[in-house]
Every structure is written in C-alpha cells, then in structure tokens.
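Summary for the steering committee. The consortium agreed at its last meeting that each partner would contribute one worked example illustrating the joint modelling workflow. Our contribution is presented below. We chose a case with several input lines so that the handling of multiple components could be demonstrated. No manual editing was applied between input and output; the record is shown as generated.
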Amino acid sequence: MYISGLVRKELGRLRSDKRTLILLFTIPLILIIIFGLTSGGGPSGFFRAAIITKDDMDCFGDFPSNSTEYDDVFISIFQNNLTSFGLETYYNVSNEFAYNNAYIECEQMLKNEIIDVFIVLVENFSETIENNVNTELLYFIDASNFDAIKSINVSMLEPISLFKLEIGKTANFSMLIPYLEFEVPFWESQVLNYAFALTIPLIIIGTTMNLSCLSIVSEGPLPRMLITPTSKKSIILSKLIANSLIMILQAGEIFIATAIFGLYCLGSLFELFLVFLAIGLCGVSMGLFISSISKTDQQANQLYMVFFIVVLLFSGQFVSVGSLPPSMKVIIYSFPLGYGIPLVLDITLKGVSIHFGLFSGLLIISTVYVILAYLSYLFKKVEV
Amino acid sequence: MKNKSPKNLVVNVKNLEVFFKKKQIINNVSFQVYKGEIIGLFGISGAGKTTIIRVLTCQIKKKHWKGIVTVTNITPGKKQNNSKILEKIGYVPQLELLNLYYDLSPLVNVEIFASNYGIKKDNALKIARDLFKILDIPEDTWNNPLKNLSGGEKKRVSMAIGLIHKPSVLFLDEPTTGVDANKRYDILNYLKKLNRKLGTTMFIITHDLEAALVCDKTAILREGKLLEFDTPYKLISSLASDGQLVRFTIENLDEKIIKKIKQYPLCKDISRTGNNVIEVFIQDLEQNYSNLIEYIINNNIKIISMSRDIANFRRYFQLRIKEEEEKEFKEK
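What follows is the complete predicted structure of the assembly.
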C-alpha cells in the first residue's frame, strides 16, 4: 500500500478546492463570533433601574431584630458601576402612601422607557438577610420587550452576587428566576457557552461530512487509480486520513476561536478537544459512507442533507432521551450527537472527565461508518 | 522487425472467451504480442475491443472469462497476480477527466500517480520532466493548474502519467478521440516516438482507422470475434491485386454508373469515396487495367481523371467488415 502518496494527493485536491476550504474554516468562525461577540458577552445589555425600598417600614412577624442597613448597601451597589445596570433614582419609603406614590412614578418611568426595570425591596429585606432566610426581591420589567425579560433576569445575578460579596453573607433571594445548578456564570459568555454544546458539534459534523461526502463520487480519476497497484482499501484509508487532518485543523480553529470569545470550561481542555476530534471523525466517516453509496454528486448532496437533518433531529436536544422508549433510544444512539452533546456538557459545565462509554460510542460510530464505506466501495462497480 | 522469441512475448491470448450473465461477449480470440510492438485494436462499437483490454488490465474478474491469458508472463485473475500485472502496465483512458486532476499541475499529477507505484517524489519528477520533454509539453505549463492547458497538452500529460513507471505495456483507449484533425497525427507521432525511445509495447483501442499508420499489427474485431490480426501491410496485400486499386473521377457519377462498372467481369469491389470519385479493385490489375478503362469508355462513361494507388487500412477495414456482413447474411 502506497498510502503516503495518496494522502498527499487528497490533501492537494482539498487544498485546490479553495471555496470549500474557506467555507470549512470560516463558517465556524462566523458562528462563534455571532454567538460570542454579538450577543454572548455575559449580560446582554445595559439597563436603567429604579429602586423602591420599604426596608424602613415596620415589619411584623418572626424576626428578633429590626435591621435596616442592608437596603442602603444594595442601593449603593447599583450606584457604583455595575456593568449591567445604572441607577436612575431610588425611593426610601416609610409608609404605604409613600410607596404607592413611588410605585406610580416608577411605573410611569417604565412606561416612558426612562427605566427598564424597577426593584422593590420589601419591608423585611434587612431582617431576612440578617437571619439568613429567603429574601424576597421584587422587580418589574417592561414586558413589552420579550428579550429584555430574559436579559434582565440574567443580569440581576450581577448586583446580587456583588451584594452578597459586600455584606459577607450568603443570603438567598427568592426570585422569579430559577437557581441553576452547573450554569454558565453571568460574567462568562453565556449565549456562546449555552449554544456551544449543540452548535459546535453540529458545525464540526456538518462541515466535515460535507467535505468528505463528495470525495469519492466526484473524483474522476479514482477508477483509473484502480488500474495501478493501489487497492480500494488504500483509497478509503487515504481519504479518511486526509479528511481527518483537515478536520483536526478545523477543530483546532474552533477551539481557539471559542477560547478567544469566552469558552467556559470547568473540565480538561485536552479532553474537550479529544471529544471534538471524535465528533469530527464521525462526520468524516459518515461523509465517506455517503460518497461511497452515491452515484452522482447530486445524489451525494441530497443524501448529505438527509443525514444532516437526521443527525440534528436525533441529537437528543429536541426530545428528552430519558423519556423515550428503548427502540427510539437505539436510534438516537446510532447517531453521534447523542454521545457528543452530553460529553461536551459534562466536560465544560460539570468539569467531569470523559465518559468512557459515551466516548467509545463516538469511536464505534465512526468505525462502523468507515467499514460501511469500505464495503460499499468494494462492491461498487467501477470502470474506466 | 521485432524479436519474436518467447522471452519477448509480452501478451499472450489464446482461446479467450468472455461471458456476462450467459451472454458471450468475446468468442475464441487468440493473439500474441511481442516486446516493442504497437498493436491497434479496431472495430465498430460493441466489437469487444474494450472487453479484451479489460481482461488484460485485470478489470474483469476471472469468473467471467476463460482461456489462456498472460500479461508480462503473469495470468490475471488472482489478487496477487493482478497487483504484479498492474505494476507492469500503464493505462491512458479515453477521457482526460478520468486520468487528470485538473486543479493540480502536470508535475503534481504525475507525482500522485507515481506514488501509487512506490516511486519517490524526486525520481518521479525527474522521469516526468524527461517524458514532458519527449512529449513537447511546454515547460512553463508544468507547474500551472492543468485546467489551463490545451486539449492536446492534456492528452500528452495523460500519456506521460501512463508511462511514469516505465511500464512494459501501455494501453491507450481512443487516444485520438476528441482531438482535432491535425492534432490527431501529432498524437500518433508522439506515440511512435515514445515507442521508439522507450521500447514500450502499446495497445491502442480506437475507432480512428488512421491510427493504423503507426501500428506494427492491427486486430480487427467484430461482434466479439477476431477477424484479423496481422501487419497492416499484410492485410492490405491480401486484397485483390495486392491491394492495388484504380481511382476514377467520373463525370455525373451516379448509382447507375457504379452498377455498370460493377458488372465488369473481373471487378472485385467498388467504393464511392467522393461525389465523383470511385475506387475499383479488379483481379490482376497489371494485366486488366487497360481492359477496365476500355470497358468504361465503351459504356459511354466519361472519365475526368484516373490514378493507380494502394488501398489504405481504412479501405481494407471497410471491405473486410463488408465481407463478414455478407457472409453472415448468406448464412442466415
């Protein structure tokens, strides 16, 4: 077997196909930029806020002390250079009448878009913090802007975190947003990192599969190669190696680009890279399989689209795998993203090591597709 | 004259029969080819030329053919044997698209194919440069993408690729197809030049009967049968009067006149080769030439000009195929 020459040939061909190469390396970059820069830099906007504190009002009930100092701290946090909030004004009310007036004023400001949110610190604000019980934080958002609801919910984490830091207490706040375990911290590129687990494996699979799906069917001189001592096995192997080398470069590029735009990874970066490579290998081998069973370029492109949609649908992101019957689970685990996405999530957000079973699943899938590609090419009628 | 000793026997085909799904494609074909010969395989479409070449180039599985076949003294069929044969033969397909990577340069193309034979890059480039010089491929195109080269240049690069590993036999499938008339002769000349310089045995499958000009031997195939296998000279000489013919330019030539001339008792064959031109084969041309002219004049046919000539391979091929068709018709 004269593999090295064939690999050089494959690389030469790939290099000469500038258009595909540019797409291969720019699409991931563009998507990462979109996710990472345009909307993914932590809190996704700057909001004007007003605060009404009722902390000075009498509170009745279960608390032994009658503290009032924490609302001032909370307000000062807003006054001092938050990246996501600026304080327009605040109201310190001591009775219900004053509160009603402040509320009406804030509502008016919200209506006039002078502020984006106003926050109400309830009567027992300081007491609940002092006694380490849940503190209620009410905030009113201009709900006509759907995006703002989500963004403000996320952004609220910033002043709360700074407030906790300032007072040295880990008081809880009962908020209308759920407290997320293993979440991407607010100071990280949240949109990028939440999109990361699905989009990056999907980009890698899609582009590598696209690159290799035409590699056999569109290569005119390939049948001629078989009138040399070259075997079909060498041809498939050389295509696998060459496309994998390109895939490694692409995965490297994605890795660097996501790091630049704020990759949040608690686990090992090396292991994450290995997962990328395994996912890419699946894409290459699936592409080779498509190429080996297709008779024309058009057929290969159509099959590619079918495979891509199936891979996406059976990624486990659109249906909860756990709730599926065993027969459906088998289908999901026949495609790479059923393994790839959990692996990426585990490494990046939970910081755990590569799950051997899931990683083996990826390698088995790529091996199966390479074998299928070889077999279908072996029995394919090739004539010069 | 090529040396016909057994050690110079490059291709030996004896009683070859090829079947596909019980249909017989090749019927009892036998021929021998010696080192350095150029063989032309002629025949109309479906004659079986390509099938024979596919057997010789290990493209048809053994289960589909029987008979004795050796290429460079190795019998195709087994995987190891095929591999050995493929190392010793070269192939130039009809379409350059099937042989060349258009986005890559001629040198890179050659290097790619050379690597399939285990030839190292430096050596491959050296051989490639030598071949390119023989084939007059302009040096300034060697490193440019092949798509920028002319059709003729691409054809020659394709030939160079077929020869990069210095094969014992080179198979060329329709080397002159798709090339304009004057370039056809160039291609044939290059083949002859390569044959002389490198001593490579060549098999040319072609519809182009002019290719016989460069062939040492020609094979004529029809419906899977080998009708003839000999030198063009011998084949032409087998015609009446050793292939000599008389060419007449006749005023107002029509079918009636042709029929009249055909009725000349010693006329063996007559072909219309132009609006007013016919070629006539007669028995013992030397003796009967003047009688033929007298016969034509006596029948009030006006001769504008006439000449004597030797039949070319095209004429021989036409007559031989016609003869076979008539024979077949009578048998039916």
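Chain A is about 60% helix and 10% strand. Chain A touches chain B through 22 residues (CB under 8 Å).
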